[in-house]
Structures are given as C-alpha cells and as structure tokens.
Amino acid sequence: MSLPRPDEFKPPPECPVFEPSWEEFRDPYAFINKIRPIAEKTGICKVRPPPDWQPPFACDVDKLHFVPRIQRLNELEAQTRVKLNFLDQIAKFWDLQGCTLKIPHVERKILDLYKLNKLVADEGGFDIVCQDRRWTKIAVQMGFSPGKAVGSHLRGHYERILYPYNLFQSGANLLCVQKTDQPAEDKDSSEPKLQEQIQRPPAPTPDASPSARRAKRMKIEVGPAELHFSAQSSTLVDLVVCLVCGSGGDEDRLLLCDGCDDSYHTFCLIPPLHDVPKGDWRCPKCLAQECSKPHEAFGFEQAHRDYSLRAFGQMADAFKSDYFNMPVHMVPMELVEKEFWRLVGAIEEDVTVEYGADIASKEFGSGFPIPNGKFKVSPADEKYLKCGWNLNNLAMMNPSVLTHVTADICGMTLPWLYVGMCFSSFCWHIEDHWSYSINYLHWGEPKTWYGAPGFAAEQLEKVMKKLAPELFDSQPDLLHQLVTIMNPNTLMAHGVPIYRTNQCAGEFVITFPRAYHSGFNQGFNFAEAVNFCTVDWMPLGRQCVDHYRLLHRYNVFSHDEMVCNMATKAGTLNVVLASAVHKDMALMIKEEQELRDKVKKMGVVNCKEAKYDNLQDDERQCATCRTTCYLSAITCPCSPGVLVCLYHINNLCSCPVSNYVLNYRYTMDDLFPMMNAVKQRAELYDEWAFRVTATLEARLEKKKGLPVFRSLLAESESRLFPDNDLLRRLRLVTQDAEKCASVAQQLLNGKKQTRYRCGSGRSRSQLTVEELSSFVRQLYNLCCSLPQAPQLKELLNRIEDFQQHSEKVLAEESPSVAEIQSLLDVSFDFDVDLPELPLLRERLEQARWLEAVQEASSQPATLTLEAMRRLIDQGVGLAPHQSVEKAMARLQEQLTLSEHWEDKASSLLQARPPHSIETLSAAAEKASVIPAHLPNCLLLKDTIRKAQEWLQEAEELQVSGCVMTADSLSDMVLRGQAIQVQLEPLERLESLLANAQEWKESAAATFLLKDSSLTLLEVLCPSFEVGTLSTSKRKAKKGKEYPKNNKKKPARLNSLREVEKALSESTDSTSAMATLEELRVREMETFFNLRAANESKLLPTADCMDLKVCFCQKAPMGAMLQCELCRDAFHSVCVRDPSDSFETQPWLCPHCQRSEKPPLSKVFSLLTSLRSVGVRLPEGDALNYLVDRTLNWQQRAQQILTDCHLPELEERPETPPTLTHWVSGCDNTHTNTQAPCLTPEWNRTSHAQTVFYTEQRCIPLQGQNSLCIQTYDGSTSTRDTMTPSERKAKRRLERGGLPDAEPRGRDKKHSHKRQKVNKKKPQRRPASTSSSPRSDFSQSDDSDEEMAVCPAESCLLPEGDEVDWVQCDGRCNQWFHQVCVGVTPEMAEKEDYVCVSCTLNDRQIRK
C-alpha cells in the first residue's frame, strides 16, 4: 500500500447524521430544534428521511433551460488566485515593456514566481539576499534539494524577471540615477537569456479579452510583431532627446514611448535595456499609470450556451467519464474529492467546469410538487403537497419568522435550484442574514459538503484574510461573493474546526446560523435549497444587520420592518415569539431613540413621515452602508432619491445639517404602544421565562433545588407555553439533574446496576475516576443544587487520596504485601473503576512473589532447584517490573549456577576412575558458597566426609598394626567402594579381601561336600544345632509330618550369626578358641542325648509298627541302616542308592555326614596360606581350633597306643561288608550263626513282630571320631578294621578321651538335602569279620567257660559243642550269648556291643 503524498488531501471528520422516526419527522421545526444543540456544534448536519418518504420529482425536465456559470478551478482557491493575480501583474508589466513573459522551469518544475518573490521580500530584498548569500536558503525553502546550484539559477531568474518589476513597484525606475552595468549571464545556465524570454507580443486581435489573455498566459512562446514608426524628417529627429540625460545622441538606442511619445535611451532606464524592444513600449510614467488602474472584481462568467437539463447531463457525464477514463458510476467518491482539491491548488492545470446555480424555482418550477402546479400529483403523492419538508412550504410555515416578510425573496423564501456536474463547486459562504438553510438532493450523484460551526465564523474569516490579504484588500466582502474557496486542510491546520459529509440523493443537509459551508458536486445531480429562520435566530438576525452595515453590504430584507410587522400582529403571535419580538423591539427602540436624539442634537429639525413599506428595497438603501432603511432615514433636498441611515448622516452631502430632513416610519410614541402590546402578549411567558432564566443562570449558593425546576416545568405545562429553546433547556437541565441525582445516590449507596463482570473485573456501569470527577464537576456545574454533590465530593477526595497513596506505593521499588493489601481492602468501599487496582493487584502478586523469593533465599537449606524453577515459572507470569526483573535475574543466575554445580557435582561423583579427594574438596568448597539446597553438592560433601573418615580409619588401622577381621575388612572395603572418591588404601584392602575370599573358596572346596547347603563356618565349627535338630525331628514325628517339609531355620541362622559375630568380635585367638570350646562342649552333650534318644526308641515295644523311623517317618521294615553317630535308623531304600557299593567306613546318615575329610597335610597348607593372607577370618579361627583338636586327639591316641604296647595302625585292605538278614519265621541257613538282631532285647520279643533287619552294625559313640580330618595321610578312615585286642585298646582310649568326642548333628533341612546326595553317592565303611569272641582286658583270659552265665533277661540257653559269646563293651563287661542279644559272629568281631543295662545306666549318668 502506497503512502499518501504530503500534500494529498485528508478528509475532515464527518458531521452528525440524523435518521428521524416518522413521529419526529412529522414536524420539521420541532425536529430541527431538537437536534440543534448537537448539530450547531459542527455547523452542518445530514438528515435521512424515513425510507418510505420519497416525494415525486415535479420539475419538467424538458422545459427547464438555464445558462450555467463557468468555473476555472485554480481560480477558486484563494491562495491560488493570489498567485494567478501576481502572475497577471508580472505578465502585464512585461507586456507593457514590449516583451512576453515565459515562466521558466527549475528541476523540471514550473518556477513559483509568487513564492520566490515573497521569500526574497521576507529576507529583506534582492540586495540583502545577494549580500548575505541566502539563495541556497531560498532554494531549500522552495522545496529544492540543496547542493545542486539551484540558488544561482533562482537568482538569475529573479534578477531577470522579478527584479525590474520590484523596482517599478518601488518607483525607483522613475528616478534619474547613474547607469549600472547589467550583471553578466551565467554561461552554463540552462535557461534562455532575457532577450529570449522577453519578446515582443503579437499584434492584439479584435476579439481579445481579459479572459482570453489569462487563458493564454502560460504559453511558452509568442511570435514577434512589427514595430511601426511614423515617417519624420531629419529635422524632427534631431529634436528628440532623452528625458533622462537630455542628449539626442545614440539614436539607435533611443526609445519612443507608445503612450506619451517621450524618448529614453535604453541605457538610461532603470534597469537598462540591452536591446530595443520589438513590441509596443511604455515609458516608466505611462507604465505607472497603466498598472495603477484598479483591478476588476473577480466573479464567475456566464457560459455562452443555454442548456436543457438533458443536454447538461450529457455534457457532465461525458466530462467525468473522459476525465477519469471510466464509467461515471464507477469513480470512487474519495478519488473525486482528492482530485478536486489537487486541481484547485495547481496553477499549471487549468480545468474549467460549469455549474447551474441559483436557478429560480418560481420561473422553472420546483422539484417538489406544489398545489395548482403544472405537475399532476397522483393521489398517493398528495401528502407531499402540504408536507413540512417540502421546501416550498418549509420557509413559510408559522414557526418561521420569515412569514412576516412581505416580499417573496428568491433563494430565501422561494427555493433555488442547482444543477451540478463533476468538480462544480459552491465556495465558502454563510447564508444571507445568517439564516438557516436546508438543501435537498432530488437525484444524481452525491454532493460533498464542508462546514464550520457558527462560533468559528470569525476565526475562519481571520485565517482566510491572513493567507490571502491581497484578495480582501480589493474586496472586503469577498466571502459574501461566493467566489472564493480554501482547502479545508489549510483551515484545519490553522485551528478552524471543519466537518464534512456526502449528501446522497434523497437526503437533506441543514446549515445553521452563521455556519460557513462550501462543497462540490461528485457528478451530474439536481438539488433544491431554501432558507428559513426560527425564533432563536432573531438576536443573530439583528447582529447580522450590524455586521452588514460595517461591510457596506446590502440587506435582503429589512429586519426592523419584519419586527414591526410582527408587533402589529401581537395578538396572533405565540407567547414565545411575542417574547422574542418584545426583546428585539426593545433593543430596536432603544437604538432608534438614541440615533434620533443624536441627529436632533446635530441640528436636524425637519421631520416628515415616510411610508417605506411601499418602496422597493433598492430605493431606500443607505447610500453609504447599503442598509435597507425602515424606521428612519436622512435626506437632503439637494439630492433627490438619495438617503442615508442615521449612522452615516455625515456622508449625505455638503449641505448644512439644518437642511437635512429626518424621514420616519413611526414616531417614538407609535413604537412604544406596539412594544407594550407585544409585551402584554408575552408578559406571562416573560415572567415565567425570567424566573426560568434566573434559575438557570444562578451560581454557587444561589442555585435552586431540583423541586424548583420541577415546579417551573409543571407551570409551563399547565399554561401551555410553546416548546421553545428555553423550555427545552429547562426540561433538559431538569432531566439531567434527576439522572445525576439518581446516579449520585446509587454511588453513595454503593448500588451496582446491571453488573456484567468482564475479564478485568470492571462492570459496564462502573464509572472511572475521571468520569466520577467529571460527574462531580457536572453536579457542581448543574443549574440546580443537589444534596448528593458534597457527599460525592467527599467520596472523590477519598478516592483521590487512595490514588495518591497508590501512586506512592506503586512508585516504591518493593512495597510490602500488607501495604498493598490494605489499599485493596480500602478500594472495596469505592464503586468506581480505579485504574490503580489492576496495577495494585499486579504489584501484590509481584510483592508476594518477591517475598516468597526473599523467604526462600533466607532459608538456603530449603531452596531447592525445583523451588527456584517454580519461583521462576511464577515470576514469568508476572507483569514486568524493575524489582521483579532484578529478582528474576538473580534467581535465574542462582539457578544457572546451582544447576551447573549440581551437574558438576554429579559428574564428579560419577567419574570413572573417581577423582581425588583434593579435587572434590576444591569443588565442594566452591559450591558451598551457593545459598541453595543442592543434593548433589551435599552428597559431594558427605562423600568427602565419608572419604576423610574412611581414610582416617584406614590410617589408624595401619598405625595400630592390628590384624583386621574379615568382617571389618569387608565392611571397610564395601564402604570404601561406596565412596566415589579415589582412596589409595582401598586397592590394598581390596587385595586383602580378595585373598581372604580366595582362601575361603579354597577351604570351601576342601571341606564342603558337593552341592552342600552348609557354609564353611558351619562345617568347621562344632555342631551347635543338634538339639534343635532332635527336637525338630521329635516334633515332626509327633505330628506325623515328613521331616523335609519343615523348612524353618531361623534358630540355626541366628545361632550361626551369633557364632560368627562372637568370632568376629573376639580380640585375639584365645577368646575365639574359648568360644569354640564352649560350642564343642555343647556339641558333645547334644550328641549324647541324641544317641540315647535314638537308641531308646529302638527298644522292643509291644508293637513295632508304632515306631516311626527314617525320613519317611514310617515303621522299620526291610533293610535298615543305622547311623554310626546319631544311632538313628533309616530305611535302606530311603537313604541308599541300590547301585551304591558298600564301604568299610562307618555309615553316617545325611544329617551327620557334614563335610569331606581332607588329609591333614592339605589342611596344614590351608593354615599356611591363611597366615599369608593377613586377615582374621572366623573360618580361620574355626580351622585352627579344628586342627588343634585333631592334633590333640592324635597325640592322646598315640599315647594310649604306646601305653598299651599296640602296634601302629596300618592300612588294611578293604573288604565288602557282610549283610545280616533276619526275617521272622525263617530258619537260619548260615553256618555258625544264628538269626541276628539289633539288640538282645529285640531277640526277646516275638518273632512275629519283627519285620526289619540291619545291613550294618553301629559302633558306640566313644568309638566314632567326629573330626573332619583324616588322621593319616592316604588312609581312608581312622576306623579301619582292627583285631579284638586293638579294639579293646581303642575302646580304652575312647573312654579316656570321651570329652574330646564331638557328636555332630544337622537340622532337618540340611539332612534332607544330604539325604538326596547320599542316595546318589552313599559312603560305606568296610567291616572285618571274626569268629572268636572279643576279650576284655579287665578279666582273666583263663576264666572257665562252663562257669559263665548269660546275664540276658531271657537267655535262650543255647546248647551245642560251640556257643558264641559276646562281651559287653559298656561298664559291666559281662558276657552274653550272641544269640540271646542278637549279635552274629561277624558283628561281634567287627563291632562293639553294649548291653541294654549299660546303655540305660549311661543315660542315667548323663542325665
């Protein structure tokens, strides 16, 4: 979109547009009076009738003929006309000098000679400008760009064209001065020389006229004309001499004036001429005479053609279509408007249009239908004949005072017609006698109007006189000639209020008294206008007559005559008009009385009555001021037909004043009764009007209350006073006062009407503070006094105090929340829209946020990154403020720094390999200055603290030289590994821990069975949970539940922990050995009890089927195995795989088979490697104790063997065990054997109850070595097959070393696991056989066999050559028949036998 040019026309604001309803439209005067307070502020207004109001066009188009006026657009504008007049004078000056003016071009533009001449004159003249070198300044002021040598060109043009004219104007060319040289021309000038620019004009043609001359003044070149000389003799030539120098020489340079025949040398003239002019030449004297003649008054010329309405329309449409090169209806109104004002201001464009203006409707017929007119009105349109808006009726309706003007005034009381074309215009003017005017556009294209309000009339006149003084000097009443226009933008730039409107067909435009208006037509149209005057106009009408007197302008009608005519009809006047007439007549009589007294004092004694009613207006005009005389005039017998008004008595003639005659229409005695008659008619109204006026104009404490206004209104209604301005004003003031009182009361009561809450919280009915202040001022400016005004004033004062306090608080950098909240609480009392409230709410949010930031900053321990982000997010939503921005900047900076250090701390802690403690400490020290809660930085500090504590602990351990326990080492390593710091001792400790773990793994591989669930410490320590196992087994048996289903092991785990803890907390090996020794004692006691319990349950019972044995908790049946250690019985199918081979080692149940039994040498190597580890392990202490027990047992065994003189034990070949089979009801098929049984007691039972047998015999507890170590390297067991004497020695050894025996037990869960393992790989012990009974060293070997008695309770008294005996290996050492106690010879040879009595006695002893 292109920007408008600086000189492009900018449309003024629009004037009011009214659209009355039918009710309002019915009475035009009432409607105009109603809109007058609004419309008179803009001078003009537009009225759109109701849509159905469409009067027919009554003018006969074919018969209407008129001669239009010719309008040259660039002559209409005042400033442009001044320039054209100046150019005319310049052209005339050079024309009289015998040359033709050609206006030069500068920078491709026509040079504005008027502006150049004015600027040079303002700078002090040509000489001053040249002296001070101001030509560049002149060029810039004329709109040329500096730096292009335009100033020198302007100087040349001024010197050649304007300088001689200015010399002529000043009269310098009439003086005899010394001849001066003509300045040399610039050789590089692009303009033609003076001789080329100023040439002789052509011979004038007979039809030349001023208008033709003006039209041709812009031509570039004119052909030369011959110079005519009369033939003269040489003697006459010698008589011609120069009037300047008095010489007759240089005849070829001697000029003869074509006006007076005086002679001048070309070089004697000022300025001198270089060449003889080729045309007619005038001397300076004749030139002065010609140019001093007065100018013709400017006016529109009449066209030479008579147009019909149709022909004019065709011409107008063709012009507009050709000019804009488009159909007339497609040309935008804005384009026409801008083009019009461009043309009126362009001197180089000469566009001429024609305007059919001021066509009398009386002669050609009105556009509205009239009664008895030539236009036949249809019945539907008859309503328009008497319609008030019919302009033929409007001016002469009763409300119009013009009805009292006797003559028909064309244009005022009779409408005028206007036929326009594109660009045809009506210039700035006000209506005659400052009356109203109304214009109706019947049809055609719009008419554009511009108007200024009546109060700005003098201002507009002043501006136009200032901008075009030359025009007003020659025509003081120029604005009354309707021939001058001025751009509205120019007037508005000088402070004149201008308004515009586009009047379309079917619309009225009303102008108000003394409102200047002008405009132009957008195209072909037809309009009609008339004047009218209302009662309110009468004071202005008298003021206008006085104004006309000053301008010497004629009156259209006599104002005094109109007033007197109304006074003679006082009885018929309405009271309002009578009152207005009375006031006007009082002024008229007062003025007339003063003037008559004045002329009488001057000596006028002759008086006579004159019937001026019967004279035409032009016959009774004042010869001086052209005022139409009515009440009186002065005449002189010397000048018949000449009269003057009483103001200009001195201008009548030179006769003595005593000769003057005072002509009067009424005597003063006649005027007063007329005024009194009007007064009586208006007296009631005047008295009421006086009281109303006094009430309305009362000030301060004299103001009346609202009841007084209501009473005056009621009086006007009761007396039927007409609706005039005063009554309307009273009604309006009363209505305003009532509304104000109601609103004021609501404001005071805090009532809110129709509150629609908007987003801002303001209701639509709330007043702003400015509105409230204006409302309070309005209350005090009201003509009545309201009691609510002081109260509202006090409320306004409180609000202003609130605003001042709010302003102060808002100006503070950081106001407190409490202070802002208190202000907001105070604002709740004001039912006013306070602009500070949104700001206060914003500041309250800001203050709360700032306090939150301050509170968070004051507690760095709780200021987390999330809190800072949340505060920043909250701050982003706040309104911008310096304090908020500062706090946001600080918070953002702190957040950025905190995030940086958090990320850095996290990266430092997660670095691999870890950083040194020095690096971390330096970073932590820098991060510690940040006042915020930074988890990573705190973690970094905590890590550094832990690292420092760990290093201190490691240093203390190193300094103390103590051997670390495995737990403390593991704990230190784990803590060191958890610390994300590079710890130098950690690697060494990790190596120690790795060595300890490697040793434990090696020991576990040595001792632990495959797939064993036991720990190494459980295996190496004495068994401490045997009792728990037995109890569990008993409970399981009692509950008839399978043992492996009981999976509880808290007691074992807790006990193991306690053992491990005790070993770990022991300060030296002695305390650890004491702990282990205590466990050993508990183990022995537990195994003794377990064996006795298991043996006791195997005693014969009434029904063996009630016995529950083995893991399956079923009765003994079939092949059975008895554990060598715990003496419990197990079904062979439950604990042994059929594929397993029998071994010679004693059989241990899965509960008792806890570990492998490595060679002692291998154990010694483990101990050696343990010492190199350098760490105290609970397993190491247990292994040391186990080795000590083993070595101790070995020493005692060797000692006993040595004491008994027995040979060293040697390895013997293993033989498969002999299985013993016994089934009830079967004969014994074995040689030298009887049916064996577990115990002699079983033999005494009924054979029918015995349904099981043992595959292997048990040995006594004393004979079982519970150690996990083989005492001989390479041997399979310490229980190899022995001779009876060896067994006896061994038995003694075991009895002597009973405290060292260690029964072992296992919990149910582990036995269950071992059971599975044993099923896969059962271990069997080899057994040796012997047919001879064992001997007892305590008895004599020579005892007689016959004297021996079997002590069995149920001895079978065997018979035969050989009876096998077996000796009790218990305390009694008695001999029993093998068959009586259920022992086979093989069992007697390889196993010990303890009778039932010894077994029971031993149990009693233990208890």
Automatic annotation (TrEMBL):
Biased composition (Polar residues): 1271-1284
Organism: Cyprinodon variegatus (Sheepshead minnow)
Cell compartment(s), UniProt: Nucleus
Entry EC no(s): 1.14.11.67
Residues annotated as domain JmjN: 15-56
One CC-aspect GO term: chromatin
Skewed-composition ranges (Basic residues): 1306-1324
Name of protein: [histone H3]-trimethyl-L-lysine(4) demethylase
SMART domains: ARID, BRIGHT, JmjC, JmjN, PHD
Top-level taxonomy: Eukaryota, Metazoa, Chordata, Craniata, Vertebrata
Family named by the database record: Belongs to the JARID1 histone demethylase family.
Primary location class: nucleus
